[in-house]
Amino acid sequence: xxxxPTKSSATTxxxxxxxxxxxSWLAFNRRxxxxxxxxxHPLIERxxxxxxxxxxxxxxxxIRVAGVxxxxxxxxxxxxxxxxxxxxxxxxxxxxxxxxxxDQYRCWREQLVPALAAEGIHFKSGQDLTPRELAWVRAYxxxxxxxxxxxxxxxxxxxxxxxxxxxxNVVVTLDNPTTPAIEQLIAILPVPRILPRLxxxxxxxxxPQRTIFLSEIIKLCAGELFPGYRLTAAxxxxxxxxxxxxxxxxxxxxLLVKIEEELRNLRRGAAVRLEIEEGVNASLFATLCHELGLxxxxxxxxxGPINLMRLQSIGDLDRPDLKYPAFTPVNASPLxxxxxxxxxxxxxxxxxxxxxxxxxPVVDFVEQAARDPQVFAIKQTFYRTSGDSPLVRALIEASxxxxxxxxxxxxxxxxxxxxxxxxxxQLEEAGVHVVYGLIGHKTHCKMCLVxxxxxxxxxxxxxxxxxxxxxxxxxxxxxxxxxxxxxDLTGDVAHLFNAxxxxxxxxxxxxxxxxxxxLHRRINLLIAAEARHxxxxxxxxxxAKMNSLVDKATIDAxxxxxxxxxxxxxxxxxxxxxxxxRPGLSDNIRVRSIVGxxxxxxxxxxxxxxxxxxxxxxxxxDWMPRNFFRRVEVVFPIRDPGLRRWVMDEFFAVELRxxxxxxxxxxxxxxxxxxxxxxxxxxxxxxxFMAAATRRARG
Length: 699
Hints:
This protein is of the alpha/beta class. The protein has 3 domains: 21-322, polyphosphate kinase like, CATH 3.30.1840.10; 338-507, Endonuclease Chain A (Endonuclease, Chain A, 2-Layer Sandwich), CATH 3.30.870.10; 514-698, 2-Layer Sandwich (Endonuclease, Chain A). Helices cover 36% and strands 21% of the residues. Strands 14, 18, 19, 20, 21, 23, 24, 25, 26 and 27 form a 10-stranded mixed β-sheet that branches. Helix 10 (390-400) links the parallel strand 11 (375-382) and strand 12 (404-409). Helix 1 runs antiparallel to helix 2 (43-73). The longest helix has 33 residues, at 86-118. The protein is globular and about 90 Å long. It starts with 20 loop residues before the first helix and ends with a helix. Residues 5-11 and 245-253 have low confidence and may be disordered.
């Protein structure tokens, strides 16, 4: 995974090395797959983990592989920091994905299906249906499936159809039994998304739960769509297409309309992957590859169901014995009384740790502002939110109550573009001022500002977070929410909103670290300051938690700090291009990844030698070029002494103790379980935080 190191003598500094971004991401998805393979998790949760690996891989091909393919096809031969050309990346990606997909489907066939059957949950193929089950399936096909299928023949008068991105299809071959020569007529059955992909056989009946995939039903009964012909073969398949939006914002007079047009065009994006069931004959295989413009290297023959993401619906089964014990986020913070929110924040800062702490105070903050007659204005960013967002409803209510309301909606939030367009239209119709941020930059920061008249002055209250304003994902994403009325911080927030909604070529911020203006420079200056202290013989320490670490300049700064003697702990859930533990280069750097019940999503940072006292930061930005230079991001300091102690003594310390869900990154690119002393029990940071939240609720 790493580029080849340069040979050097013992007296020279080793040349920096870097892991390839795409291969590092695939290593992360394998860590997710390990959760599906592990019997530490309840059975249905293991199925969910497997489904997540499938969804992750879909996005990887739609965005990352599609981008590398475009580079290769454009003749790009330059290498990145890892030393790999686009062609070499694609070869290594294929090798890694082949192994990953093989293990995905082996996990499904050999581990999960037998375990589910032992619990009375059976997955049936067309071949092992009983006569009674077969009769039920055929009746279901005629009543529910047949009416919405449209067979598309392939011949001289019927060109190859435009197949939608990730849509289920069944390709069939047919023969006319009245002609002496065996023919291979081909037809495709596109399956509407409205049909459920998992079908319960005879639901409501007694006995074991019996389930069959929709593709199995269609393959079994497809002959009914072609009277007079003999069905000779049927195979489910789907095509993955390039799904990256390209918007020239400077040329787009109406950004909302332009993005709506691009979303419609995504269905016709170039094919980047074909998944088809194993067993398809060579002639049919060649036809599909030719029509889709895909080489065989982009085709995956699967020994199992197409689209593992569809297995998520197993979670709807009423089998609590096969799921995680229920956990309800705790609302025991100083903000638990909505009526006292502003009074509380006048005297103290508040920090919440989701999903252990309830997201409700965030909703209450905006709802109270919408209804409080002393609140004059509300300003809020939206990157992703839920389909029935109470925050959007609160902003609409605030506007109807006569308040000045501004919503900064990111229309280009990947895969949420359509939802955000819908909310933008509803907000505009309610009189909310909707803006779309800086040209060429996604607005990814999470901030809300409330302006309230108190006596003769206007006071600002702010919420700053690491996660999206989405009450649904807040139940399984780990994030931090910071509430404050400190004038120094809220003043910077107000300044940033003005820069985003008005004009501001190079705004200055005294306390916030803001991308694309100052974040990259400030982070690298903080790393360099730790290195100076270490070289001077003083204690030096960096702890950084994020989703991804990719930026070369920042990695180089960390290498230099390690060489100076700075002790560095990195908690990186996903992609990490830094190579830790390499003698002479990164001896003092440890990298760990935590993958567990909740999605680790918070970004937080500790620098020991900031002027006066250690600097503790949190915010929306990973250490990637896109976050530093192509997005609007906010990283904020945590000033309250009690909250700072919690971040160091609980948040960071607990995650660095994890021996159950944590994996350590080694110099060869592998992730290995963390070691523990003989006799010590495994320790889970997430379980610790859940138990602590439960104690707070009881207290």
